[in-house]
Amino acid sequence: MFRFLTSGESHGKCLNAIIDGIPAGVPLIKEYIDNELARRQIGYGRGGRMQIETDRAEINSGVRFGITTGAPISIEIKNKDWENWQIPMSVMPVNMDDLDNRLLVESKEITRVRPGHADFAGAMKYAHNDVRNVLERSSARETAARVAVGAVAKSFLKEFGIEGFSHVIRIGKVKTSFSSDYETMKIAAENSDLRCADEKAAALMRKEIDEAAESGDTLGGCIEIIFKGLPVGLGSFVQWDRRLDARLAGAVMSIQAVKAVEIGMGKDVAAARGSETHDEVFFENGEYVRKTNNAGGIEGGMTNGETLVVKASMKAIPTMKKSLKSVDIKTNQPYEAHFERSDTCAVPACGVVAEAMVAIVLAEAFLEKFGGDFLQEIKTNYENYKKYLDGRKNG
């Protein structure tokens, strides 16, 4: 069973991830994880935190000589900004009789809740008077740990020819219109500071981001995640919680600021007739083929052998210089919401995080189907399944 947990705070000492269930024998190197972390940090419209942090992973267990051992994998990502927060974010008791300590802690205290964040509900739920106890963990900084876990999942999936990427298809009111083959789209997205394969649209997106920044506002958008090389039959139709589309939707929706997840045609199916929606099946040259992929690679909660297409819509970041009206929960008096260093637009970064979450779900489903304790055992199971599928094609 593939599973993971993360820990850590935005301005704490570090982020941690513990990953259980990765089999022995999978090549895994620190440099690959670092590259994935770097992809998360780039993007036009990012804020000052990206100039402070250069995320690097430390693999502390579960890997020997660049190969997984089958034991739990522990990954640590240090927060460089921790050196400025050692007193306000101390895990040990702080002497508040010391005036310097008290003033430093009080300067970081937050009681003015920010609309759109976890601040209000979190403070009420956990009985916190200082909202920093909520925002430090609910911050999107946590997604760095998820990207590290996603890198481990991707390293595993690569061994079976499964790979994917993300690209931005909308920021604010600007949508892309460019469409091409997988490799062309991937290369164009990776070479764009907005992870947008459509350079004409990207130019308009940058202009919209600049205008939002000038007015102290923020922007959301939509990203598309594409994975190819998936076999038929990951997931299942027999129970609600085994349906792969449901699991993917939950994983991607768990990303901070994501408010909608679509697969294939997504919400457009509501306006389409059945004849315009469903992908016809043909048998040509000894292969089952589709001429369309409106289902986005999933039918009945299972992969159908086509390319997986997932879309995620991210809301505009609620932390902005143009403060919204709110309340100080200490006094119940009206105030403008607290502003904490933030981005104008983080949609490209959201795409990298969504890639990671999709890869995690796919790795989990793959291990459920072809599970074993070491890589070669799983490869043998997979090859036997492919032989079975080939046999079905031959009658």
Structure report:
With 395 residues, this protein is an alpha+beta fold. It is built from twelve helices and 18 strands. The protein has helices at residues 30-41, 49-52, 99-107, 119-126, 132-138, 143-158, 182-190, 199-214, 244-253, 274-277, 347-370, 375-393, and strands at residues 3-8, 14-20, 57-61, 63-64, 67-68, 73-78, 163-171, 174-175, 221-228, 232-235, 258-263, 281-284, 287-290, 298-299, 302-304, 308-314, 325-328, 333-336. It has a five-stranded antiparallel β-sheet with strand order 8-7-9-16-11. It has a four-stranded antiparallel β-sheet with strand order 1-2-6-3. Helix 1 runs antiparallel to helix 11 (347-370) and helix 6 (143-158) crosses helix 11 (347-370). The model has no long low-confidence stretch (mean pLDDT 94).
Layout of helices and strands:
Layout: E1 3-8, E2 14-20, H1 30-41, H2 49-52, E3 57-61, E4 63-64, E5 67-68, E6 73-78, H3 99-107, H4 119-126, H5 132-138, H6 143-158, E7 163-171, E8 174-175, H7 182-190, H8 199-214, E9 221-228, E10 232-235, H9 244-253, E11 258-263, H10 274-277, E12 281-284, E13 287-290, E14 298-299, E15 302-304, E16 308-314, E17 325-328, E18 333-336, H11 347-370, H12 375-393
Antiparallel strand pairs: 1-2, 2-6, 3-6, 4-5, 7-8, 7-9, 9-16, 10-15, 11-16, 12-13, 14-15, 17-18
